[in-house]
Amino acid sequence: MNAACQPVEVRHLSKSFGTKPALTDVTLSLAPGTVTGLLGRNGAGKTTLIKCLLGLLRPGAGESRVLGERSGDLSPGVKARIGYVPQEPVIYPWMRVRQGIAYQGAFYETWDVGLTEDLLKTFELDPRQRIGALSVGQLQKLAILLALACRPEVLLLDEPVAALDPEGRRHFLRVLLDLVADGTRTVLLSTHITSDVERVCSHVAILKDGKLLQMAEMDELRGSVKELRLAASRPLPEALPGVPGVLSYRGGGSSAVLTVQGDVPAVAARLQRELAAEVTVMDLSLEDVFLELHR
Amino acid sequence: MRTPFRAILRVYASRWQSWLVLTFWLVQLLAFIPAVLDMHGVRDLFPMILFAVGYTCAAIGVQTKEHLGAYRAALVPGFRLPHLTTALLALGVAALPFPVVAALAGGSALGVLGLVVPMGALAFAGCCRGGWRAAAFGLGYLLVFIPGVSQWVKGLLAGQYPWVAAILCLLGLWLLVDAVLFLVTMDEETPGYEMQFRSNLRQFRGSQARQSMSAAIRNLDRQNSIWLRLVDVQIPDTMPYVGASRWRRIVHWRRAQANQWFAVLMPSLIWLVMVAIQLGLAQPAAASSRWALRSTMWVLVMIPPMLALSAWQARGGMLNRELTYPLRRRDFVIEQGVAALVPQYAAWLLVLLAMVGVSAILPDACAWTDLLTAAAVAGPWQAVVFALLARLGTLGSGLPMVIGMLLAAFVGTLLLMGCVVLANPAVTATVSAALVLLAGAALAGTYRHWLRVDIA
């Protein structure tokens, strides 16, 4: 599939609220069968990006497309192939769970009644309960159910597990993995829980202050940011000017720890040579990578 | 029938509010038919028509907006069309029987259409726009009752101005088309998105709060904006709860309730406009004006405290957090109660003062003895109503509150009317004393209830 046919495409997208930029020149595309974790601090633009993709917000510049159609003008056929879990689900509080499911299901030809029953059991939701009486976590589970039940080809999840307990999160991730197992569905998962991203995502996109800082495969990203531990027989310098890709450096006496992005082996070799130090390369967790990139 | 339509109709049918509106509408229609036949025309029935069509179309607007002013409308395939179709059909059903009945009775169908189409569209469009716009659109209803205009409307209904009726019909249809376009094209950045007639905190969030009119909305809706400001920045400065005097805390709670001006002034203004309307309606028959005011002021006296209380109830969700402030629960309950009662009685007194003014200007419109009766009976009744609604407000459902308010208005009006008709000071004093005792007992019971009730 060429780039023009990717299920989710964003080109030079910018969006401001008043004078405050929320997204600046964001370009990315998600290939079919990929699960992309969208990471960023609070206010980095994750929700804005997802809402622009869905056409809920109008971009100031650039464009985004989902399943080949412009986000602001999605046809019913394409909408039927998109699932969305908002950060704060709004579901009619006076309905009962069963009624809410039937109500939304009435609009989808592909609505999978069997899947809804399975998910009701998995998430331990009582179909007779009034939606207004659900806890925040239960409401989140219902929102996930509603998003998954149409068996979407593109699934956009805006912090879907923030309110779930560990068991609920585990159930959700398993359901998500089952859903994408056939390799045809595309998922964009915005979350702050990096361990979840490591568990299910094949790709990672990192937003910082509205700009796309990094978009890479999970292994590639983790492979490109490493921690180097230096041990030398003489005092090491206080800083390392001129060494490319150094994100952070904490030196003291004859040992130091630094984080490097880019060509890690080359940097390690150079430091070993110039400082006459023993260099140990350490892997970082995704959370550490995220924090280092945000320094 | 397609499945989405069935689902939408089920939603309409599953809401008790739908049945309430339908019942009111049917009662109006059933009262309208014999009235038309008896009077051989509709010229004097326009308040009835407006009432029936107005609130029904407004309810349809609220219902439609609730579904279309959410992300679901933009994402669920084919969501908007069946909703809009259902709404337009319901609008037709709400409005069209009146011109049909008028025509069957030998009146002018076009004349009635010239009223119901624009006014129904006004109510629907106003509620679709939501927030303060709904109130602004609602002002259109008040215009019809201005004395000169109301005479002209009667002529319109009698078929005296067919061309004007046709133009008004077209204007109404244009308003409907505009409302439909608004519902179809709005997104999260459109002013009014997510807003319904009933205001809520959601409308002041995120992009909504940044809309160009947001400052005006926030200023209008004190109930929300002041609280938001307190939450954001002012709590450390304005909430010296440790060591502060009880009255100072009460003042703070009143600020936090933020209904002190909104709740006092708005109902009072509404009341004054309604009195002006009532006087205007009765103007041609000056002899009946006193009775006209008598017959309405008692109900209207009940409105301010109910609105004030409902505004206070609207922030019930805040109480659980506020209960964690370093205060003993009994102090918290007493202070919240007093803070709610202060604007309630302020609104009531303002209305009473306004009535004194009306009485001074138009002695025939309102007698001094009636005002004294109003003060003696409706005064303690405010506390009874407050205690009742404060108790019902803890049940977690709006329905008991609505029923409680209707019941309170009915009983309060009945008591006042009885005292006014009897015009016996001894009876009035006895009723007043009984109400004072009842208010004391009700307040004490509600206070004890609030000490035990779950606030979550």
Describe this protein's structure.
The complex is a heterodimer of chains A (295) and B (456). Chain A is built from 10 helices and 14 strands. Chain A is of the alpha/beta class and 295 residues long. Chain A has 2 domains: 8-209, 3-Layer(aba) Sandwich (Rossmann fold), CATH 3.40.50; 222-293, Alpha-Beta Plaits (2-Layer Sandwich). In chain A, a hairpin with a 2-residue loop joins strand 12 (246-252) and strand 13. In chain A, helix 4 packs antiparallel against helix 5 (136-148). The longest helix of chain A has 15 residues, at 166-180. The two termini of chain A are 36 Å apart. Chain B has 456 residues and is mostly helical. Helices cover 79% and strands 0% of the residues of chain B. Chain B has 21 helices and no strands. Chain B has helices at residues 3-14, 16-39, 46-68, 71-75, 80-95, 97-104, 109-129, 131-144, 147-157, 162-185, 206-209, 214-220, 222-238, 246-257, 262-282, 289-313, 319-322, 329-361, 368-392, 398-422, 425-452. Chain B is globular and about 65 Å long. The interface between A and B is medium-sized, with 26 and 23 residues.
Quick overview of this protein structure:
Chain A has about 300 residues and is an alpha/beta fold. Chain A contains 10 helices and 14 strands. Chain A has 2 domains: about 10-210, P-loop containing nucleotide triphosphate hydrolases (Rossmann fold, 3-Layer(aba) Sandwich); about 220-295, Alpha-Beta Plaits, CATH 3.30.70.
Number of helices of chain A: 10
Q: How many domains of chain A, as an integer?
A: 2
Find the count of extended strands of chain A (DSSP E, 2+ residues): 14
What's the assembly state of these chains?
A: heterodimer
CATH topology description of the largest domain in chain A: Rossmann fold
How confident is the prediction overall: mean pLDDT of chain B? 74
Helix content of chain A: 25-40%
* Spatial strand order of the main sheet of chain A: 6-7-8-3-9-10
Rounded to the nearest angstrom, the radius of gyration of chain B is 24 Å
Distance between the termini of chain A: 36 Å
The end-to-end distance of chain B, rounded to whole angstroms, is 43 Å
CATH architectural category of the largest domain in chain A: 3-Layer(aba) Sandwich
Q: Mean of residue pLDDT of chain A?
A: 88
CATH superfamily of the largest domain in chain A: P-loop containing nucleotide triphosphate hydrolases
User: How much strand content do the residues of chain B show?
Assistant: under 5%
What structural class do the secondary elements of chain B suggest? mainly alpha
Structural class of chain A: alpha/beta
Tell me the greatest interface: A-B, 26 and 23 residues
For the record, the CATH class of the largest domain in chain A is Alpha Beta
User: Mind summarizing the main beta sheet of chain A?
Assistant: 6 strands, mixed
